[in-house]
Amino acid sequence: MKKKIAAVLVATLMVGTILVGCGSNSTASKGTKHSAALVTDGGGIDDKSFNQSAWEGLEKWGKSQGLKKGINGYNYTQSSDDADFLPNINKLIKAKYATIFGIGYKLDNAISSAAKENPKTNFAIIDSVVKGRKNVASVTFKTEQSSFLAGVAAAETTKTGRVGFVGGIQSDIIKTFEAGFKQGVKAVNPKIKVDVKYAGSFTKADVGQSLATAMYNNNEDVVFHAAGGTGAGVFTAAKNAAKNGKKVWVVGVDQDQKEDGAYKGGNVTLASAVKKVGTAVEDLSKQAAKDKFPGGKTVTYDLKDNGVGIVNDNMSASAWKTVQQYEKKIENGEITVSPK
Known about the structure:
Pfam families: Bmp. By secondary structure, the chain is an alpha/beta fold. The chain has helices at residues 2-31, 50-64, 85-94, 108-117, 143-157, 172-188, 205-217, 231-243, 277-289, 317-331; strands spanning 36-39, 74-77, 99-102, 122-126, 136-141, 162-167, 193-198, 222-226, 249-254, 262-263, 266-267, 269-275, 298-301, 308-312. The protein is globular, with a radius of gyration of 25 Å. The termini are far apart.
């Protein structure tokens, strides 16, 4: 009899242990949090442009999930030059981040290589398309559309009939900004002259300042930049010209850059052609956390879905009205903006 009771007790304890174990695994599974991190291109997360927008999007997502910056949460690695891309990606892989973003087309080869070696990790590349990798989501933006509106704003504002464009590195992506800007200017007034210059870098503010200063000295009174950190120099040139009595403007890029145009006595930011990289990073992080990551697909953001747009910083009421009219024409398909 005692043996039977002992056997029953042992069996009961074993079942209890198994149930407790199952309960613990279930709780752990439910409590598992998704983690995500990004690798910057040459700019930092405080570049007031592309990389900063991406980081703010990731940070917003992380905080909404109750995560903290660091391992098992959200994080970033900063690249000083192209040679840092793959080592930085590998650091994040080693730290077991579930989703890794490459911020900028320059990281596409590094992302493709890492994705091939790590098929269970989600990767996303911004501003490029990586083919043949089922674990890579490619994110693109119709920046020609927002740049078209920047061109409309410039054309509606110029008093000299001369405007400028300062690009960072001459590439397919930055050429879409140039193309859209030119089309927007010409849509309003085909007689306006558009001067185009490239700095050859996204991180050389001194070169941006030199190029923009030459433009303002050449009576180009509105300059649109798509140059990342180099664009800081464009703002410096505009503020210096304004302090010397010239009425000049800058059209900012990627984020609302009104703050960058502020100086004692005024503000030189006319408008900002925004590209909502942060929105894309936040969206893909949400999808990945729900096991709905769009690996192997290209996700495109445009005016219609609020992925790109223009912010009115200091436009006149008539200029803003015209910009809004053209925005509607693009959204309803009446105008198609070419990326080239």
